[in-house]
Amino acid sequence: MSVSQADSAQHAGRRITQRGLWFEEFEIDTIYEHRPGRTVTEADNVLFTTLTMNTQALHLDAAFAATQPGFGGQRLVNSMFTLSTIVGLSVAQLTQGTLVANLGFSEIAFPHPLFHGDTLYAETVCTGKRESRSRPGEGVVDLTHVGRNQDGEIVARASRATLVRMAASGGSESAGGVA
Length: 179
Prior knowledge:
single chain; alpha+beta; 6 helices; 5 strands; 31% strand; globular; Oxidase regulatory-like protein
């Protein structure tokens, strides 16, 4: 018996694997806070911007950004990085292993810029849910993701429709639940 098998045998109690929420567990008007936050670095911004072929000088060119009014001469963090990160921060708590699909994003806004060195915090509000009419065992959950910087200023907001498994249909093992 290997060390890991022996360790497992000694701890033969119940095992729980982290997962997101089943459709039934989402509560309308509940704010889900996602922690920890994520401090955004220059490397994050430059890598994301170049990987996505976004050559906007406001993200890449410090000398150019220094000449532009309105942002204190700083480069801006790519807004698509900001959006991706606030959604990503929500995954472990809300949709890990229970999400079937993203159905779409709407009402996306970036009311305040995010800069290198800022820490991004995310929260999500469940704004609605309904059982799917075409996919038994699944439901549509409407979410609004909000990103704030370390000063509490909203830097991003987006509404999102998702398709999520119901607990009875997903099976706890197939979506990483209680084994």
